[in-house]
Design brief:
Glycerol-3-phosphate (1)-acyltransferase, 4 domains, 52% helix, 14% strand
């Protein structure tokens, strides 16, 4: 019988390999799963299938792992390298056929008595073909493909139609020695039966994590939404204005407008198309920290992805990455502006559900949308939405829009069986195709409505976009978060069930939104474009020699490597010279060459464009830049004075740039940074004073650390200039209304940007100015009187005087001269 099986395998191996394209997840088996090539490995599969084994063999050969077809020698005994939970089912039978797993594993455990050093890695392996979720109602194709442990005829059709969509999913290795040691009193047979039970549970969870829960028919989902008590109550309220049937029809129309229509066949098609697109326009998609999300999926968490929003590419890129990391494809909240033919239908079948920009007080629409979202959570579907609401036009994170977050918290209050975890996601690019459009919109051009013509034009102009970067941040377990922030949150469940809102909900959700954005920024990715833009925009006339640019980029990389902004940020693996070579290919810089070498420069239009990329990582260099600004501006200072001033300014920077550190952590980080900057030569110490380093004495030096420190100081200059500008408007003012201060500051900022050639659009952005004014009030730099007017005090003036020493003398002099005429709402002394 065994000889016949070997002959059968040899016959089908080559034609099967031709039909197969075996992918595997995760990428790093040793680092993430602890699988060692130095210890014996036995693979544990769900079903005894020849084609599954062939797929596994292809992957193990590529990874340098043992061949699953070859027996291994354990304590002098030849043992199969592969064990199975079930045998294949026959075509006409749906009954489970048990394998010899219990007997084989019992014999394996007996071998441990013969060899005390024996330790086998039992590696569960899940083989997925097409990754279709189980459906509520099945068609003819499902009879062939959608079965657990299918027989040979079903497997033939599976390989024929889905062989190119094969995924081999490895799981964490189980140590046989640990099992024997921890259950030493149990018999080998009992241990074997426990292994069988654990294996069955594991494969069910793995299936859930990869393909998601059973896919409901849209009619059943609609009935669940429209039959919910909250929606029925909203229909009755609407019926007070219009006939009942019309109110029901509106609710039906709303759910049809909102709901996704997930189609796994389209997902596979999009995967193939997007793979070709990414290979054409990107040099690679760099993904980090996906192991955090896989761990959540293994533990049965409801996962809510909350990424930053840079581009329309985000919709596709994040879903594509999640799919290739072996995780359930999420349902995606998309703006209603994307629901146009034919893109809307494609997105809807790809898992997008559409949301209006504003609910406009429409209680019926709100009830339908909220219930739809709750249905997704309750049934175990992953969800993705954007905390910022819309795309960032400046490259900075936008203040959070908390509507979807509030609905997520309310869904938890109403009772979701599984734990909910929010996963912040940083997305970055070396080229964002909409940047030129963003700049026009910031200058006042009306935003163009999305259309098929726009999409076609973008596709036609696809070119080299460099690399894409996607980092998963530290997850937030929502229940634990509420326990820490609002310990009595469970008392709000009855209120939410009755349609009311607990008092703590709004402030807690606002804080949650900020925490998510801070975690997104803490997972930022430094790349060639962001780093080169940072350096060139800081240089005079936006011009640097190649040597200066490479030296500065390398110094900044070294500084971040020795004192990382956070454990989740990622840095380039290349050195600065190779990094710059790759960045040059994107065609963003003007390069001139003479007998001394290359000179990199930016014209004004490109300089404005590159502020977008610089702003992606501005927050990572804010504190190092502030250190440089204080040392240069004060012409040297003690460590105590330096750290003291930074401690005063940090809360303002934290609010504006969504920095994740507490004041205490920031102080510790500042101290570490000072040590690092001394170590790499960016600072010097003389007679207890931190001072600028001396310029190099030899012409053979690769760079000037003093000039690099000056460049670093320039990173935060525009922020300090904006702070000084706002504080200068408060001079000689007893009290002022907040809107008046915002408007006055904005107009003066526009004037100063022209006088001083400041290219960054956010310099006079009203939202950024508003954030700074709010931060001053919250940190007691401005008080508020009984009429709601802002009142400056001596501390306000003292901070302004400190900041005037950190900005350039020319700017400091002019900013006190350029004052807007008093407006209504100002009381002068």
């Amino acid at each position: 019988m065994l000889d016949f099986r070997k002959l059968f395998l040899q016959i089908i191996k080559h034609p099967t390999r031709f039909l197969l394209k075996a992918n595997h997840t995760p990428a790093d088996l040793e680092g993430e799963l602890g699988i060692s090539k130095d210890k014996p490995i036995i693979y544990l599969l769900k079903s005894d299938s020849a084609t599954d084994l062939i797929a596994l063999e292809l992957v193990t050969k590529k990874l340098g792992l043992p061949n699953p077809f070859k027996a291994i020698n354990l304590a002098g005994t030849k043992t199969p390298a592969t064990l199975f939970v079930d045998k294949p089912r026959s075509f006409f039978s749906n009954g489970r056929k048990l394998s010899d797993l219990a007997r084989n594993s019992a014999e394996m455990f007996k071998l441990h008595r013969l060899d005390e050093n024996l330790d086998i890695q039992i590696v569960p392996v899940s083989i997925f073909w097409g990754r279709d979720p189980e459906k509520q109602s099945k068609g003819w194709s499902d009879l062939l493909t959608m079965r657990n442990s299918p027989g040979w005829l079903r497997k033939f059709f599976i390989v024929l139609f889905l062989g190119r969509d094969n995924v081999v999913g490895f799981s964490r290795a189980v140590s046989s020695r640990n099992m024997v040691s921890t259950m030493s009193k149990e018999s080998d047979e009992r241990l074997a039966h426990k292994l069988v039970r654990l294996a069955r549970t594991h494969f069910v969870r793995k299936q859930q994590a990869m393909t998601g829960p059973r896919l409901l028919h849209r009619t059943e989902l609609f009935n669940g939404v429209l039959g919910a008590d909250a929606v029925k109550a909203a229909i009755q309220e609407e019926a007070e204005k219009v006939p009942l049937q019309e109110a029901k029809a509106r609710a039906q129309k709303y759910i049809e407008e909102i709901a996704a229509d997930y189609n796994s066949t389209l997902i596979r098609l999009l995967d193939r198309v997007l793979t070709k697109v990414w290979n054409k326009i990107y040099n690679g998609i760099n993904v980090h920290h996906a192991d955090k999300v896989r761990e959540l999926a293994r533990n049965g968490h409801e996962i809510v992805y909350v990424p930053c929003h840079r581009s329309h590419m985000d919709y596709l890129l994040l879903t594509y990455v999640i799919y290739h990391e072996g995780l359930m494809t999420p349902y995606i909240a998309a703006g209603i502006n994307l629901n146009f033919w034919p893109i809307g239908g494609i997105f809807r079948r790809g898992g997008a559900f559409f949301i209006r920009r504003t609910f406009g007080g429409n209680k019926l629409y709100t009830a339908v949308f909220r219930e739809y979202l709750e249905q997704l959570f309750k049934r175990g579907y992953s969800v993705k939405y954007y905390a910022e609401g819309g795309r960032s036009r400046t490259g900075r994170l936008l203040p959070p829009k908390t509507g979807m977050l509030a609905m997520t918290v309310q869904a938890l209050l109403k009772g979701v069986n599984r734990p909910i975890s929010i996963v912040p996601v940083y997305i970055g690019y070396e080229h964002v195709m909409e940047v030129s459009t963003y700049l026009k919109e910031l200058k006042g051009t009306k935003k163009q409505k999305e259309s098929f013509t726009q999409i076609f034009s973008a596709i036609r102009n696809l070119k080299n976009y460099g690399h894409g970067f996607l980092n998963f941040g530290d997850p937030i377990n929502l229940s634990q978060y509420l326990d820490d922030v609002t310990p009595n949150w469970r008392e709000g469940r009855e209120l939410v069930q009755d349609g009311a809102k607990p008092n703590w909900l709004t402030p807690t959700v606002n804080r949650l939104g900020v925490d998510i954005l801070q975690r997104i920024n803490s997972a930022a990715a430094v790349n060639g474009m962001t780093l080169a833009a940072l350096c060139l925009l800081c240089a005079k006339k936006h011009t640097l020699s190649r040597e200066e640019l490479v030296f500065s980029m390398q110094t900044f990389i070294d500084m971040q490597r020795k004192s990382p902004f956070s454990h989740s940020t990622t840095l380039p693996e290349q050195d600065a010279d190779a990094l710059l070579e790759d960045t040059i290919k994107l065609g963003k810089f003007s390069i001139h060459e003479d007998k001394f070498g290359q000179v990199f420069s930016l014209d004004r239009r490109i300089a404005i464009t590159l502020t977008y990329y610089r702003n992606n990582i501005l927050h990572m260099f804010a504190i190092p830049s502030l250190i440089a600004a204080v040392v240069i501006g004060k012409r040297g200072c003690t460590r105590e004075k330096l750290t003291g001033l930074i401690s005063r300014l940090y809360p303002l920077l934290k609010r504006e740039l969504f920095l994740y550190m507490s004041d205490e952590k920031a102080a510790e980080y500042t101290s570490n940074l000072i040590d690092t900057m001394l170590d790499i030569g960016l600072l010097a110490e003389h007679d207890g004073q931190l001072v600028e380093p001396q310029p190099p004495r030899s012409n053979e030096s690769k760079g000037d650390p003093k000039y690099t420190l000056w460049l670093l100081n320039r990173v935060v200059q525009e922020t300090l200039q904006r702070y000084t500008l706002v504080l200068s408007q408060l001079e000689d003012v007893e009290r002022i209304s907040r809107p008046t201060l915002e408007e006055q500051s904005q107009r003066v900022a526009e004037r100063m940007s022209m006088l001083h050639g400041i290219n960054a659009p956010e310099f006079y952005d009203k939202n950024v100015l508003n954030t700074f004014i709010a931060a001053m009030r919250d940190n007691n730099l401005l008080s508020e009187d009984s009429n709601g007017l802002l009142v400056p005090d001596a501390e306000t003036k003292a901070l302004k005087e400190e900041l005037l020493t950190l900005v350039s003398p020319g700017y400091a002099q002019r900013v006190q001269q350029v004052k807007y005429l008093p407006l209504k709402g100002i009381n002068t002394k």
